[in-house]
Amino acid sequence: MRRHISKGSMPMHREIIAILRGVQPHEVDSIGDVLIEGGISTIEVPLNSPDAFESISKLARRFGTVAQIGAGTVLDQDDVRRVADVGGQIIVSPDTSPKVIQATKAANLSSYPGVMTPTDCFTALGNGADGLKFFPSSVLGISGFKALSAVLPTNVRTYAVGGAGPENFKAWLSAGITGFGIGSALYRAGFSPSDVASRANDIVTSYDLAASQ
């Protein structure tokens, strides 16, 4: 059953970022609908998707009051400004670029750079990052994250991306991760809204169960 989201009413927030790599502007509204109704209210469109800025703009106009909308695979300062111009709120990168982080904060957006090492983490935080995206998390692993997080500030927000999913949500959360970025397990180019709705339901159910334990 879909959850009804009234316009202007923020749904319950889960620490899940939907990564819509490959989504196209003509389908993005319907995909956004089923994600938000399914309980996922943070949506990222990677900039290597077709007409990504148009998709971000459409999502921001329609869902900006009930969801956090932003861009992924952001690699330079000009793209940060373009995301801000079309109404995006978050910037996610695969790397740790001080210039991108600084441009993001200057534009009053939230910054989530990709990190892997202690140097990456402290470089990101020192330049104002709002959270850390551990990517690819399958390479670092849960044990690697747990060891690394021992030296991080206790209030830092951390996200596992690329190797985290329903099968290991509980283990990651037990290790102290804040949340997850979910890509191909949730959306791939060609998936219909009903495909995404089914996957979102499974992911949210698994997340809620793991978070409650």
Characterize the structure shown:
The protein is 44% helix and 16% strand. With 213 residues, the protein is α/β, with parallel strands linked by helices. It has one domain: Aldolase class I (TIM Barrel). Strands 5-4-3-2-1-9-8-7-6 form a 9-stranded parallel beta sheet. Helix 1 packs across helix 2 (52-63), helix 1 runs parallel beside helix 8 (193-212) and helix 7 (169-175) crosses helix 8. 40% of the residues are buried. The model is unreliable at 1-9 (pLDDT under 50).
Give the gist of this structure:
The chain has one domain (16-212): TIM Barrel. The chain is 44% helix and 16% strand.
Keywords summarizing the entry:
alpha/beta; TIM Barrel; 213 residues; disordered N terminus; 9-stranded parallel β-sheet; 8 helices
CA radius of gyration: 16 Å
Based on the coordinates given, report the CATH architecture: Alpha-Beta Barrel
DSSP helical segment count: 8
Q: What would you call the structural class?
A: alpha/beta
The dominant shape is: globular
Query: How many structural domains?
Result: 1
Helix content: 40-55%
CATH class: Alpha Beta
CATH homologous superfamily? Aldolase class I
CATH topology: TIM Barrel
Query: β content, as a range?
Result: 15-25%
Which series of helices and strands comes N to C? EHEHEHEHEEHEHEHEH
Mean pLDDT: 94
**N/C terminus separation:** 24 Å
Spatial order of the strands forming the largest sheet: 5-4-3-2-1-9-8-7-6
